[in-house]
Amino acid sequence: MSRRKPLYTVFVGTDSGILKGIEFTSCGANTKNYPSSSTLDRGNEITALLWRDENEKEIYVGHRDRTVSLFDTQAESFIFRLPINFGKGKIVDITQRKEHILVAVESGHIGTLFKCEKSEQKVFSDTLHGVKCTFKAKPTLKTIKGHPGHATQFATGGCENNLKIWDIERPNRAIFMAKNVPNDMLDLRVPVLVSDLSFMHDNRTVAVVSRNKFVRLYDPRAKRRAVINVKYEDSPLTSICILPDRPGQVAIGTAHGRVTLFDLRMKIKYRNPVVYKGINGGIKDLAAASPDPPFVYSVSLDRYLRVHNIDTKKTVHKEYLKSRLTTVLVKS
Predict the structure, then answer these.
(1) Is the entire prediction scored with pTM above 0.70?
(2) Could you name the domain of life of the organism this protein comes from (predicted)?
C-alpha cells in the first residue's frame, strides 16, 4: 500500500531561504524543507509569502536579495525566480490587486508583477508609492495590504510613513492619508513607527500596530486621525491579523513574545485583552485562516511555530523548526 502524501497546510519562511511545509497530525507534525537555491544564506531570506490565487496551490515568495519566486505546492518545486529593478532595500511585502501582484521594497517603491497563464512577465510599473525625507529618521516601508472590499485599493505603512490608502488606477496621490497623533505632554512630536496593518471585517476600517506600542483603528469616512488609540504594555508591537468570523477582533504579536486578542469594536469599551502564553521569543508573524477550528498561528525568535486555540487559549501545537523563522502562511 502506497504511503499517503502529506497535506501541508502551513508554510513558514526562514532567514536562510528555506520554505518549510508543515502538516499537523495527531502524532505531531510532518515537516519538509524546500530550498529555493543551491546556496542558502541571508541573501535568500524569505521576507514575504502570498497565495497566487484562491486555489491556494502556488505561493509567491519574496526574498531579501530583491527577487520574487513562485512555489508550486503540488509539484513541490520552485517554478521561477525573478529579480526586481526598482527602489532600494529588501522586499518587505507582497499583495495582489486584480491581475497585478504588487511588490513593495523598503525605500517605499511598489512595482507590479503581471500574472499570465503560462508564466509571469517581469514587467514593473513606475513608482506607486514615494516617500519624502521630512524628518531625521529615514522613511521606510514596512507593510502593504490589499483592500478586501475594493479590487484596486491597498494600504501602506512604515517608519515615518503613516497609514495611506492607494488606488492602483490612480497612483499619483493616496486617496487617504492618516494624520499623526497630537504631540505628547512635553509638546514633542510622536514618531510614526507603523510595523503592520490589516483591514478589518467591515472592509472600511484599518487596524494599525506600531513599534511605539500603540494599537490604532482608522476610519477613512470619519477623520484622518485614529478613532481608537490604545497603548499596550511596554513592548513594541510587531504583527497583526484579523480573526475570521469574529468581527472587530484581531490578534497582535509583540517583541517580548506575547500573542494577544484585542476587541476593537466601537460599541464595546476597551477591556483587558486575552493573552496566549508559552512564547519565549519576539513574534515575527501571525496568521489565522479558518474559523473552524479557531486557531491563531505564530512564528517567533525562539524558532518555534505555535498554534493556539482562540477560545480555550491552549497551545494546540508547538513545533521547533531549527531555522530562524520570518513569516507564516496558512491555507484557508
Answers:
(1) yes
(2) Eukaryota
